[in-house]
Amino acid sequence: TAAGGTPGYSYLWNTGETTEDLSNICAEIYCVTVTDTNLCTAVACITITEPSEALSVNIVGTDVLCYGDSTGAADLTVNGGTPAYSYLWDTGETSQDLSNIGADTFCVTVTDANSCTATACVTITEPPAPLIANIAGTDVDCNGAMNGAADLSVSDGTTPYSYLWNTGLTTEDLSNIPGGIYCVTVTDANGCSVIECVTITEPTLLTINIDSTQNVTWYGGNDGAAYITVNGGTTPYSYLWDAGYTTED
């Protein structure tokens, strides 16, 4: 603003501009020489400052450990600009950081006290598929035997896997086991777990009852008989008498 002297005034800035005012200028020292109608002059200077550092934003993401969970996080750090800052995430959140988030891409716009803005994005990942366990069971052949098996197959999640059966064993598979219900907890490298069970069956006890017999009616005869009933086990049955016969009766 020029006053005194004899209007009108002319202006000459050290930038070469001849307007009264300057706009859209960078941080610098600006001096202007004002000359009135009588060629009297006056000089004034002003220093235009700026924040010491440009506004910048950095996000450190924490990925989701288990497929489908919401254990991710976005930790935002702001530098430069002019505090205080405000935050607006594309989710609508206005907090500085995000927690308990699922896998996705998250972007934030940070605005400082001078309305300067900076934007940054982070992608939170998760395992490509959930941890899956399947058990193929082999049933026991005979009642009371221990020739059953449980063959475990595990896929997806994050290797390596660990195993804990309800029997206390920590092997992947079970062999030489009796009939029963067997459950395993599979845990992957990220601590994700899944439980799978299998029922190993066994036949009922194989039993033989002799229902009736018929004695030979004369010496050296062959009209004797023995009649039996078989229960349990697994049909069909085969027979072997100590006399060599292979029929049921």
UniProtKB/TrEMBL annotation:
A Pfam family recorded for this sequence = SprB
Record InterPro entries: SprB_repeat
State the organism of origin.
marine sediment metagenome
**What is the name listed in the Swiss-Prot or TrEMBL entry for this protein?**
Ig-like domain-containing protein
